[in-house]
Amino acid sequence: MLPILLAFVAAAIPAGNPLAIRAKTAWLPGGRVLENAVVIVNDGRIVSVGANADIPEGAEVLEHDGVLTAGMIALHGATGASGETSDSTRTAMPEARIGLAVDGRASNFEALRRAGITSIVVTPDASGVTSGTSAVVRTLDGVVLRDPAHLSLVFSTAALTPNREPTSRSGAIAMLNRLFEDAHGVVADARAGKLPCLFEVREREDVIRAIAFAREHKLRGALNGAWLSGEMADAILQSKLSVIVPPLQVGTSKRVLDAMARLSQDGISFGFGLDAPDNHADAMRLTAALCVRAGMNRQLAWQGLTENAAKIAGVEARTGRIERGLDADLCLWSGDPLDLGSRAVTLVVGGVLVDVKGAADTAKESH
Amino acid sequence: MILSNALLLAAVTAASGGQDAQQRPWNIHVEHIYTGNGRNLTKGLVVVSGGRIAAITAGADEQSDRPEDTLRAYAITPGLIDAGVRITSWESVEQSREVTPEMRVADALDPFSLDWDRQVKSGVTTVLASPVDRNVIGGLSVVVKTAGPESIAERTVKADAVLRGSMGSDPSAGNHAAFGRPTDFYSRRPTTRMGVEWEWRNAFFNTALGLNEKDPGRATLVAALQGKMPVFIQAWTTQDIRTAVFLREEVESRPEFAGAGMNTPRFVIDAAAEAWKEPQLLARSHTPVILPPFPADGRTRDGAQMAWNVAKVMKDNGIPFALSSHGSDDVDQRLAIQAGYAMSGGITFDDALAAVTSTPAKLLGVDGRVGTLEVGKDADLVLWSGEPFQPGARVLATIVDGVLRYEGWSAVQGAAVER
Questions:
Q1: How far apart are CA B151 and CA A208, in angstroms?
Q2: From B94, B111, B150, residue closest to A170, measured CB to CB
């Protein structure tokens, strides 16, 4: 164990020695709720889930008088790779891999853990028409769960600069078309449907262009960053693209919140971005709570933070749900996690127990 | 004469604008039907069905009409067509090179821009949207409706309708010589009018001689030189108008172009403010023009002088001409007002109407669908409170593809679309 982690890792359970978490309530996939849940973890994975289940001999037992959930997955951010998310010397660098730039020991992962986030999709900067591919990184130890995870494609004016190609939207689209007409490497993978794309959008017009581009080149993936994407729910639903809800704030306009609420009403697959470390790690849970307050389906909002986020990140076979066989990426909350009065108490990442409450105190002391 | 007065109906059932707007039948009763092709009717009825004009009749009986389908106004004209619109500014022109024939302005248009609404409210239903003139050859303009689905593709009347470029000083603005300051992106040709014309000729000759086989813009240049796609060239001043016409005549006469079968380009001079100085040249060369907005003091861009009678001079010399707003978003430079100015410069109402409807439709190659009131054409209609283009007349309503997209009755009560 690295020294920096020692301060807040309560206990690393040795392989073969199971951990039993007995929680008053557990939130299971698909919105099912299990009372008096017992989740057994062994060798980093969930080995059983049941109500009032027997606890195996020799297991460490963790009693929790609160809510046990899957750990949250932040779909957009730069934690561990701040300042490394684009190469400004090139407009199109599809083969650049941010997964190779992530510092798994970066101190600002701690804030993510404290917020109940067990994985984050570290994404290239939305500058140039493509700055490369994203990677899914575990917040405990920087373990890369998936790399490349998405090919980033930029449809907002962030792709444009006044002193190199492209200076115009027409030029940016032409450049992207050239990239896909002569596809190789990750671009060819994206065109073959093997690699999802991350469509960086901002304005509604960007969403329209991204959808048209995805249709033309038969791409799949998620739209990130459009505050009003919900106003184009029909077109997005037809495109089968997912939506990453950007971080919102108290005071975000009703129009934006209404648009976000439409995502769940219209059956669009969605998750939440964080854009950490620029945003506070709690901003993602706050965003989901604001969306729920505006009318977003509560259960789908939670799935957007966990199991559906895992799908959008392409790691649903490993994490995002309390389910036998998956990585033990879990969070123990003091209460309902969509209630902002609740807080993460303990995190389990890959079977490793992390006392995030203690971490908060430690952070305060060391400050 | 304003017909309406006091006949406002409280219950308005039709949705105007927005995503939910539906095509529906309309019976439009007016004092005057101005068709745009010179055949005008009085006390007439225009019937709209399925997004198209279904019937045009004089003296129709309106008793049988369903009130909710009925509109009344003083006059009706075809939806106006502005061949000089810019919806998107710098994002529409790719400045990494000076010659970018393959760039599509359609990729840069914002279907949500408020400019569309402003066009609709002033009676404009079809526009040619072009890149901003900062390149010698800027790219492909697109003909689109000003209202409809929130998608440029679905509103497109004609994609890649026109190859757009410019003479004069605009394309060289911002470029500079490589000495005396740090070398950057804009250390490049052209820095003068002469250089701008050289770039045109260079692009054309390279195309005819097959020297640009790998250039993504080649196919567009071939289509332009073969006359399959018109070339709209901005040229405000006399010397730029002459340069453009002489360039075309050079293409028509040089063996390099004839040998390659690329000697029949079609040029339209846009922003031809000083066309009044060169009517014989334009007539002799059969070159249509698009006029920019009339300036208050006679001075336009590029130091050009625009006379009030420029439209009259074009008419008298048999030169096809259209009026335009040339991308202006000033309220006093709207297309309908330009038609009024052109009338004050000496042309008739019918000629002014043609210059904002049927003539631009022909120049853009979309006259099969829009530009005149004829049965079977798109139901793009403007309802007026008085004689169109007169200062006292307002647009009461604008219909695009059979959908009521603007209804001005609530703006000023008493002079309204009557239901």
A1: 7
A2: B94
